[in-house]
Every structure is written in C-alpha cells, then in structure tokens.
Design brief:
Number of helices: 11
Number of domains: 1
Helix content: 25-40%
Largest sheet: 7 strands, parallel
Order of helices and strands: EHEEHEHEEHEEHEEHEEHEHHEHH
Mean pLDDT: 94
Strand order of the largest sheet: 3-2-1-4-5-7-11
Number of strands: 14
Length: 319
C-alpha cells in the first residue's frame, strides 16, 4: 500500500509546501483545507474539508494515514485562544488514524537566554507569551506520547520561501525592496536561524519515511541557514539585482525596525504588540544543531543560501 499522510492546515504556507513535498515523494496526501484551494489537486493529493474541531469527522473523511502533520497555525493574536485547541484536535485525529503525529516546532520555547547553539536538550525558559504557549503545547504532546501516541517535533528557525506571505522575511524585510530598500529587524552582526521551507518540507518527508527510528516522543532540530543579518542582506541585494528588482547602479538602503513605535502602537493594534515581544530573536545569536536529524536521515536538505533567497524573491515579486 502507498504511504499516506494527512496535512492538517494545508491552506497555510508550510502546509502547502509540505503537501507538495510529500506528493512529489510518492505519498498519498490528504490535504486538510478550511477554504477553497487556489487550484485543482495535483496527482497523489486530495483535499479534505471536515471541521478542525471535529477530529472524528476529519479522521473519517481522511480514511487512513501513516503520518499526521499538524501544520495549522493561527495568527499571533489568536494563539492564546486556539493553539492548544488545535493541538488537541490534531492529537485526537492522529490517535483515531493510528498515525504518527509530526509537529513543526520553533525557537520561542528557549527565550532570550537561549544558548548560541540550541540542541534538543537545551533548557526551555520562554520569556514571551508565545514562547510559554509553545512550551505548553509541546508538554501536551509529550503527555500524549506517554499515553501511547507517537510524536515527533521537528524544530526550525524563521521561515522563508514557498508560496504566499506571512513571515518576517516577506512582510517586514523585503516588502519595500522595489523602492531600493530592505528592513532588518536587529543587529546585522548577529547570527539568526532561518529555514528555507522547501528544504524543511523535504526533511519532514525524510523523517516520516524513517519514523520507525523515532522514539515514542522525539525532538529533532533542522539546522537550516544560520547567518548574520549582513550576510542575508548581501544575498538579498545580489538576488534582487539578478532579478531586476532594483536599480543595478543604486546602493541598497538598509533600514531598521521601528520597535518603539510597534510597542507603543501595540496598545491599539494587537498584532504589533505580538510582533514587538519577539525583538530579542534578532539580538540574541542562535543556531540549531542538526546532529540528531542527520543521524536519522543522513544528508539534511540544504539549498545554498544565494539560490534559496533568489527563488524566494522570484516567488514574491515575479508571479
């Protein structure tokens, strides 16, 4: 029988890339969507539309799955209300399907005092509301594993690449690119962890294909691209010139984030408040260790940064 996977939250940016990656690898993909997709399903992929709040209906419509990937991620302003509800729904669905549950983790769990090299065993000391919510979700996943559900958390840095918008890279940094300007949220000499979504999605597929080697509850870190702001800006500059997005003779201007204005405006605009509490991520050097992931899957997918940035800008500006 073909391998099968349910992607919960396949309308989202990560969900779309995951669905494509699993289908390209020959899996039968059930892509859970809450709104009409932009086009017809590709071969090996079908859409399921059962309510997220009804795991029994979602499992019934899915039929069978070896893997369930919980990729549903509400906007920051709804994390407190929805994060745990969505996680429990995914856990219940995976139990009903007798599937392994995979969850995309992030670095919020470790807070502003995280070590420069973040290993799977690093202490989780969140310093933000979103970090505390993520710790609670992962604790619930751990407890579900003790009760019999197999769970794998694949943790990664900030997303870039893939379809659509909704990440720091596209909403903040390169949004003013056509005017010859980029915005960098923090110090340009500090290393920041990034995850190119097509690479991360392929890593999910490779972990799923080797799920027999996972522990009952397992945490793996995706190393991605760990680069300074100066290096990322350099790649954006070069790619933008190759794609004709900026004047080839002009100097790319680099602006900074108006953090004080975001904090003040957060009293009126909740999303600004949520963004402002993550400022520390751009001033605290951090990178994710990929040793355990490499031990499980071998060579970790890694597109050279220059090409990854160019493909991302092409997707954003030349569609």
């Amino acid at each position: 029988m073909p391998k099968s996977v349910l992607i919960v939250g396949a309308n989202g940016r990560l969900g779309q890339v995951l669905a494509s990656a699993f289908a390209e690898a020959g899996w039968q993909v059930a892509a859970h969507v809450r709104r009409e997709p932009g086009g017809p399903a590709r071969p090996g992929l079908r859409f399921v539309r059962a309510p997220l709040g009804d795991p029994a209906a979602l499992a019934e419509e899915t039929g069978s799955a070896d893997i369930v990937v919980h990729a549903a991620n509400p906007p920051y302003t709804r994390w407190k209300r929805e994060s745990m509800i969505l996680a429990h729904g995914a856990m219940d669905t995976a139990r009903r399907l007798h599937a392994v549950l995979m969850f995309p983790g992030n670095v919020y769990n470790f807070g502003a005092r995280m070590p420069e090299l973040v290993e799977e065993s690093a202490p989780q000391s969140p310093t933000t509301r979103k970090g505390r919510l993520r710790v609670e979700v992962e604790q619930a996943l751990r407890e579900a594993a003790r009760a019999g559900l197999r769970v794998a958390v694949l943790r990664a840095g900030d997303f870039f690449g893939g379809p659509g918008r909704g990440a720091w890279f596209d909403l903040m940094m390169v949004q003013p690119l056509r005017s010859g300007r980029v915005v960098y949220p923090g110090r340009t000499d500090v290393v920041h962890a990034w995850a190119y979504l097509p690479d991360l999605a392929r890593a999910f597929v490779m972990v799923a294909e080797r799920h027999a080697g996972l522990a009952q509850f397992d945490v793996l870190h995706f190393p991605g691209h760990n680069v300074t702001g100066a290096r990322m800006i350099e790649c954006i500059d070069a790619a933008a010139r190759r794609l004709g997005l900026i004047d080839p003779d002009a100097r790319l201007r680099v602006g900074s984030m108006p953090w004080l204005a975001l904090r003040a405006g957060g009293l009126i605009v909740p999303m600004w408040r949520e963004v402002a509490e993550l400022r520390y991520l751009w001033d605290v050097p951090h990178r994710l260790s990929g040793e355990r992931l490499t031990a499980l899957i071998g060579s970790v997918p890694h597109t050279p940064l220059e090409r990854a940035v160019e493909e991302t800008l092409r997707e954003l500006f030349q569609r």
